[in-house]
Fold this protein.
Amino acid sequence: MKGDLAENLRKFGVQVTAQRLAVLRAVVESPHSTADQVADAVRAKIGAISKQSVYDALKLMVDNGLIRRIQPAGSPALFETRVGDNHHHIICRQCGMTADVDCAVGEKPCLSAANQSGFQIDEAEVIFWGTCPDCLTEQASPNHRHENS
């Protein structure tokens, strides 16, 4: 997200408040954060804010297209500011680290369904699962002990 955060809120039709600025800043500074992580970051910057206020601000920003919400299977929703380009994600099965993966082909939805069942498809959401480099390095370490050992 480029430029002034308050201007970005206005551009997307979201009224500027200190709480909303803090929520947006937290998502900008730490993409792929959960709502609880955003709430913790906001509290560290501005003090008290209710979890409900954070959830409301995140929902408002998602509804207005300012941020994107993804929800990997078995995980809490994650929030990011990279919107509109239909990119995908890769998630480490061990530590949960999440990274962006650009579409492999063309523009959105960048994948074609074999049978669209009458739908007009405008987005394809793919999540790749694997093991991140840090977890692979830790596994290769001679001091690494498997949890079931």
User: Anything to note?
Assistant: The helical segments are 5-11, 18-29, 35-46, 51-63, 133-140. The mean pLDDT is 87. The two ends are 45 Å apart (CA to CA).
